[in-house]
């Protein structure tokens, strides 16, 4: 009996994940469209604002968690702001990283979903201004950053280029090593070493945007091996240090931004 070959079934078409880094004044902006089903983790030494630009964006910040409606804005304020996002396939969002200056190590660390009544395409500087206004008019934060965690975070930020031993970090914080890891997990959802990697890349982004070359930046933030720096940077930002530097410099030069692949 003669068999007829069956044509292969065409694969379903999927829009490609796109990541765009840009700058608006002193603000750094990450825009993600057509995200896969995955988690995203962001750490920044100051305010972080997350705006959902579609359905399917959930968050965890400290002890708070929930889902952002399209257009809603999550504001995480305080030193070592950390947020984990979970996206459904095809979701879109943007993250605006605020100005680090003026952040006190003991300042309140809080996360709030605020109704800013802004469009999903509003300028990042306007989003930042509206978030500041909303926080000023909001009730005082219910808690302050754990003093032990504040000391540990400050020590990490000051010693990025040095070898980090958890025993030394625990001594600075004044707790046992195991308890230190629990404090980091409770307040930031990260281990001390993972938090340090995020802070290193955050510092590297600022240096690259200011015009420093990739090799000097890698050494400045404590990476002796360039390939290790590249892997860590890409894992956290979705792109390479060189591509990131070109994108933010183009944005600063002509007011535009360039789409980057985050394969």
Automatic annotation (TrEMBL):
Gene3D superfamilies: Homeodomain-like. Keywords: DNA-binding, Transcription, Transcription regulation. InterPro entries: AraC_XylS_family_regulators, Homeodomain-like_sf, HTH_AraC. The keyword Metal-binding does not apply. GO terms for molecular function: DNA-binding transcription factor activity; sequence-specific DNA binding. Signal peptide: none annotated. Residues 150-247 form the HTH araC/xylS-type domain. The keyword Transcription regulation applies. Pfam families: HTH_18 (PF12833). This is Transcriptional regulator, AraC family protein.
